[in-house]
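Box 3.1 — From sequence to structure: CD209 antigen-like protein
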Amino acid sequence: MSMSYYRKMNIPGTHGMDKDEQEEMNIYSNTDASDDVRKEMENTDTKRHQTSQHTEEWMHYESNLYYFSCVKKNWTESRRYCTERGADLIIINNREEQEFVKKQAGDNNRVWIGLTDIDVEGTWKWVDGSPPTSGFWMSAEPGGHRGENCALTVVGEWADYPCTEEFNWVCEKSKM
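Predicted structure (token representation):
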């Protein structure tokens, strides 16, 4: 569908005319939308699309909302993304929540979770400062290697990994 806009154009050299004469000299021209107008319309459509997507992307489970990313970032950038939206990286409290993440993320998709030992090597804490009450570590994990200070979940189990690597992530926030 082609869009046209009517624009009022003033002819130069009308400065000596009175108001009525100037009005008569104005020309209405049927023109295609300018690049600026097109860009503004595209930006508005994109913003509208992003806004509706933002609402749809958060999934409800139990009493919380979850966001499963489609892009990859390092652990710190992933956490920042979550906190800028009033959330944080997910804290997995039980087997059911772990299974929910596994199902939504897909069996082979590695996603950052809110578990780290960055403050004290070997002392794992959730992003809220609490220790994990249950663990779903893979065999031989956490590996205890320096530099592997952030946790991710893959195939329903946890592994420690360098925080600088880029993976998808899961944000969690209270529904209230």
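Summary of the box: The two ends are 43 Å apart (CA to CA).
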